[in-house]
Amino acid sequence: MPNEQALRDDNRTPTILYEENGEVRRVSVLKPLPAGEHFLTVAREKMGGGKEDLVVPAVGKRLIVKGVAIAQQPDTTQGAQVLLGGRVIHKVWVNDQSGYVPMRQEGVVGEKIEIQNVAFQGSERAFFIVNYLEV
Description:
The chain is mostly beta strands. It folds into two domains: 1-34, no CATH class; 40-134, Jelly Rolls. The chain contains no helices and ten strands. It has strands spanning 17-20, 23-26, 40-47, 50-55, 63-72, 79-84, 87-93, 101-106, 113-118, 125-134. Strands 3-10-5-8 form a four-stranded antiparallel sheet, with no helix packed on it. The protein starts with 16 loop residues before the first strand and ends with a strand.
């Protein structure tokens, strides 16, 4: 784990430390924080109410949601949500929007990622972005 000794270099700039291969490393422009596992991104615009599949895993695979963002047009009357295996994992309500929300929501084998516009009127729209892994 990063320790107090790693900070004793008279660097007054706020910094982030992380451990890699047993060494304490400092985040910099030349050495950014490792992003971790590679993931896939899917985006969809949905108009009107209802639910639809966003990602269906291959047979015998499961999905891990790494992050979500939802934006609704300004005059929407209800909410938009992302579901994993039927469970709501992220939601915005009444003409709201979210920035990117990192997470780690794990599904079981065969569970799909769905999007839903709740009680939207005809032409009301929401835009969904989901980062995920298929394992």
